[in-house]
Amino acid sequence: MGMKEALPFLGMVSIQFIQVGMIVAVKEATSHGLTKFTFVFYSNSLAALILLPTSFLLHRSTRPPITFSLLCKIFVISLLLCTSQVVGNVAVQITPASFSTAIMNLVPGFTFTLAVIFRLEQADFKSSSTLAKSIGTIVSIVGALIVTLYKGPSLLMTATQYNFVLGAFLLTIDCLSASAYIITQAFLLMQFGAELIIVFFVSFFVAIMTGILSLVMERDPAAWSLLPSVKLLSILFSGIVGSAIQVSIMVWSLRRRGPLFIAVFHPLGIVISTVVGIIIFGDILYLGSVVGSIIIVIGFYSVMWGKSKEQKMITDDEETSSESPREKAPLLQNIRETQV
């Protein structure tokens, strides 16, 4: 595998570290008085300010026309992301980091199902690659259910109290919103190839939505304060790294490798979040979480095996194809061409 082929993998692995960092940032900021609405508002506002000049500069020669119809579609995508971020932030506050990350592994299952429904993924159940992806998706969901429903004995004791049932419910909504966001983003990228401009408008719209929610829901002016400095540092990390950089990497990878490729990297965050949660927050490590996480990882690698086998078949077909312009076309472009 050359460096060009490895970049989407490296990007998605880095995103797992960033997402765990985001959990830490949310917990730290909200524990010091910043609310879920103001946190998302500040984070996306900062991301929009960063992306406004950079996105239009980088796409100055390749930018398609920005129409009202396009802005409406981006607004719908932004609504899904806003729901995911706000609900997810609430869930993160009431669950351990390892639990939150484990439940988020429902995203591959939801995304695969939606991708098959909307024909972004091929579903030939006679194919070993499709069977591997389907079985891996089911196994991952079973693992997530074990993490949620079965605790077992605690392997590490702490005094921290969490609301697992409400947290699991909110995280499921987060997963559904995130999956729908990935799928709708994939469709939009078929029509508008300037990825960073899409990310800018999404951040801009989410900032407007949560700004309005903050004004309505938060009557106390102290909710807007960025002091002490830990709140400001959390916002800086969330806005620059968590929103601007992370979402840009995700959209770039999505355009080149498809929606399921993005989703199946979530299980890699389990180990990272478990270690961080135990060290920083003193989270409880239950036997059920360990067993469920192992099952989720098995499902993850089953899906990845199916994806790699499928990609190899595509690569072999391209090598024997005489249509050279299609050989180098991004994945979503190929999908679009087959649907015309």
From TrEMBL:
UniProt keyword Protein biosynthesis present: no
Gene Ontology CC terms: membrane
Region ranges (Disordered): 314-340
Nuclease among keywords: no
Membrane topology according to the record: Multi-pass membrane protein
Record InterPro entries: EmrE-like, WAT1-related
Protein name: WAT1-related protein
